[in-house]
Amino acid sequence: MADFETPEVKEYLDMPELQPGAMSHSKPFVSRDEFQGPLGFPGELVDDWQHVALAKLAELLNKNRGLQVFMDACVKCGACTDKCHYFLGTSDPRNMPVARQDLLRNVYRRYFTWPGRLFPKLVGAQDLTEDVLDQWYSYFHQCSECRRCSVYCPYGIDTAEITMATREIMNAVGKGQKYSNEIIGKVFKIGNNLGLPQPALKDTLEGLEEEVKEDTGVDVRYPLDEKGADVLLVTPSADFFAEPHVDGLIGYGKVFHQAGISWTLSSHASEAANFGLFIGSPENMRKIALRVREAAEELGVKRIVFGECGHAWRVAYSFLNTLAGPFDFLDPRYPVPQHICEVTHELIQRGALTLDKSANDHRRVTFHDSCNVARASRMGNTPGGQFTIPREIIQAVCNHYYDMPADTIGEATFCCGGGGGLLTDDLMELRVKGALPRMQALRQVVEEEGVTHLAAICAICKSQFAKVLPYYGFEMDQIVSVHQLVSDAIVLDPAKQTT
Amino acid sequence: MTFASIVYAVLFYGATAILLIGVGLRIARYARTPAPLKIPTTPAPTSRGGVIGRMASEVVFFYSLFKANKWIWILAWVFHLALLLVLLRHLRYFIDPVWEWVVLIQPFGVYAGFAMLAGLIGLWIRRIFVERIRYISAPSDHLMLGLLIAIAASGLAMKYLWHVDVTAVKVFFVGLMRFEIHSLPAEPLLLLHLALVAALMIVFPFSKLLHAPGVFFSPTRNQADNPREQRHTSWAARVEHTGAAAPANRGAPVPNARSED
Ligand code: HEM
Ligand code: HEM
Ligand code: SF4
Ligand code: SF4
Known about the structure:
The complex is a heterodimer of chains A (about 500) and B (about 260). With about 500 residues, chain A is mainly α. Chain A has helices at about 35, 50-65, 65-75, 85-90, 95-110, 115-120, 120-125, 130-140, 150, 160-170, 180-190, 200-215, 245-260, 280-300, 310-325, 340-350, 370-375, 385-395, 430-435, 435-450, 460-470, 480-490; strands at about 230-235, 265, 305, 340, 365, 455, 480. Chain A starts with about 30 loop residues before the first helix and ends in a 10-residue tail after the last helix. With about 260 residues, chain B is mainly α. The model of chain B is unreliable at about 240-260 (pLDDT under 50). Chain B is built from 13 helices and no strands. The relative contact order of chain B is 0.16. Chains A and B meet through α2, α3, α5, α7 and α9 of A and α1, α3, α7, α8 and α11 of B. The structure holds protoporphyrin IX containing FE (2 copies) and iron/sulfur cluster (2 copies).
């Protein structure tokens, strides 16, 4: 299938023997002028890149307390060293979180601390050379910004923050990553990651309406740009046609239909994903986030709901209010924004949905906690709602539900291996190897409980699993959307109308 | 008054100044630097009170470390608790008359010296023999453990092998606090102990020992998880200098306020 070996899935997750440099060849395609420009970054490596990079680092240290504290506080205790799925899957010691951080920290020490200026060897400080930049490019694109390491660090040092900062520095000197930057450009130009213009979207949604009508005989609507709807649904554009994403979108529509909630998608904000997060660029993240506000005002909605997408939910839940708020023009009775799972969960609790669990009896399901939902946001009113709410939904629509081992779910969940701007074919080896810990946990419930399906609430997780499951001997359609399960179980009432 | 007394007086004035000013400046920097976005590692407490509880569990029990690795946790916790007891026990050299509770903990303090040594040696063994930790260690990481071990060992040696006149030590240090220089017993072990302690104080503000103040400023641990309920606004400080455009649409004001976390 490829020019690398898929790691063997063993009974237990072994601690790998260190293989220095094992993944130093892994690098995504470098961005070009045409993709850099629209984001405000230089098109190629600038001449005095060292100066620019250090000036940028100085600026970030002044503006981001987290980065400053994380640079200083690490005691090299080693608690995080065995926590990263990329280390566990690749054996490359540079993929140990602290070793990844040190690629930046060693430069910080050299130029910003006295011991590093005076005795660089003693404290491991390093000059910012071309070689270091090269390692940055390689290893800061082997971090999915999943925050698993930050759970276990005694000071909460979050490698994701350091990865974001370094990617921002690399963009500032003109060494950006093609995949993420090209996609952000598409959002600015067209409104979504896939570059689907309004007419294509409209077609797709009409197609969905016909499909659901054929399947169920009921007129479920998938409206676009409808002024005066109550809910603006912002969902990852993969939901419009990728498998299994689109089955989730069908599910959201059925839920709104059954609940009698009027809703609409927006062609202006036809993307929940916000890759500005991945490249650590708050300015670009904000520009994308503002589109959601603009769409909400334009359409005059009362609520904003986000579809199934992990990092999008982080940006929505944790940052939207800061970036594009305050949202005082919306209905104050609802949190802004809401997750589609919160909406569905509340309807189930109220008994507003008729559900036929047996429709999912051919499935034995487990749930993959997506990292950005698990460790960077919340659902509901209590901490940990992001774990209980999706599980309660699944259990309300499925008779057979089983959790994977406790140290691989909840806050300890393993990343799918494709998050953080790494979901690109030029990083296939990394993606396959990084999926190892999740595959190992999946294999365990497949063998012990006969699990047949892995449910997720993240567009990236779904795409990633669809691609890597076959490498590990599973089928690509074993990954399902949570709202696909809802969709299959929901008993539609033809009389209900959403407009 | 001996030459050593003067040298050590100068040394300790200098070291104290560096420690206090250095750490003070660092803390001021942490406090002033804005935390532009809400980034608590979730699940996180939703209120201020909850955050204080979370922080206490980290500082007192090293809770995250406990979840991560039981060996590092037990060694680290024993070392730090012992260090705390040893330092409190040392208050008797600086306070006159000695507070009641400092007198009460004296007996524990002695065992603490050994516990501290044991913890440090355990941590060093891990650092040397666990391949992953050896990989991430710089020479300074080994030296720091060596320094603390040398301080503890020289202290214990004074206690059990070559005694020093602790009353004279006290007179010297209480004197320093009143800006008087009394004579310091010229015992080699004592001078060694004190020189190493001064070295520790001097490197503190420039080394990883900044983890002690740092932990309180870590946004992943000290922020409340309430972004939907309460708009976090220190964002403004993040964009201020980068020339990011004002919100493209009407309104969406970005207040210039700096929120507390
Ligand atoms: C608020 C107070 C403090 C807290 C919460 C704290 C916490 C921690 C934690 C969780 C670790 C990681 C585990 C380990 O490797 O031991 C650590 C390491 C360390 N701490 Fe502290 N600490 C504090 C104060 C201090 C002070 C005052 C010192 C100075 C003498 C110190 C010296 C060290 C050293 C040397 C290490 C690294 C040990 C190693 O090499 O493995 N700590 N601290
Ligand atoms: C200016 C500061 C200090 C002074 C004047 C000082 C002085 C002394 C003296 C005189 C002793 C002998 C006690 C006896 O014979 O009963 C001692 C013991 C000891 N010192 Fe220090 N010391 C200082 C700082 C420190 C620091 C910062 C540490 C730890 C990092 C430390 C660790 C120890 C230990 C572990 C012992 C042995 C156990 C004990 O008696 O508590 N000392 N110190
Ligand atoms: S954030 Fe995730 S991917 Fe990045 S170093 Fe930490 S554990 Fe690894
Ligand atoms: S757990 Fe935290 S302090 Fe320990 S080595 Fe990793 S990043 Fe550094």
